[in-house]
Amino acid sequence: MTVTLRFFASLREKLGETDSLTLPSGSTVGDARDALMARGGAHAEALARSRAVRAAVNQKMAAESVVLAEGDELAFFPPVTGG
User: Fold this and answer.
1) What per-residue confidence (pLDDT) applies to 74?
2) Is residue 33 part of a domain?
3) pLDDT category of residue 18 using cuts at 50, 70 and 90
4) Is residue 22 part of a domain?
């Protein structure tokens, strides 16, 4: 299956605005993050497990255990701060 990727804030600066990723059926948000980190370079650095990164699937916050479906939009972004 193929999902559309979107990156926001500092992740967009490092990885670009959009991308796509092909994964096996039944893959989760965490699997997608692992696959992106396996690309190495900027992806491995920006999405490292030591970094706080949030995800949304189809514009709804999603845990790493959420199972993805064909055509989903998966967005990654840093935590939001402010007040």
Assistant:
1) 98
2) yes
3) very high
4) yes
From the list 81, 62, 82, 83, the residue with the least C-alpha distance to 6 is 62
Residue range(s) defining the domain that contains residue 52 = 2-77
The pLDDT of residue 15 is 96
Which CATH number do you get for residue 71?
3.10.20.30
- 45 in any annotated domain: yes
What is the DSSP secondary-structure string of 45-78?
Answer: HHT-TTS--EEEETTEE--TTPBP-TT-EEEEEP
Mean pLDDT, the chain, whole residue set: 95
Residue appearing with tokens 């980190």 = 37
Question: Residue 23: its pLDDT value, please?
Answer: 98
What is the count of structural domains for the chain? 1
Among 72, 48, 74, 71, which residue's Cα sits nearest to residue 63?
Answer: 74
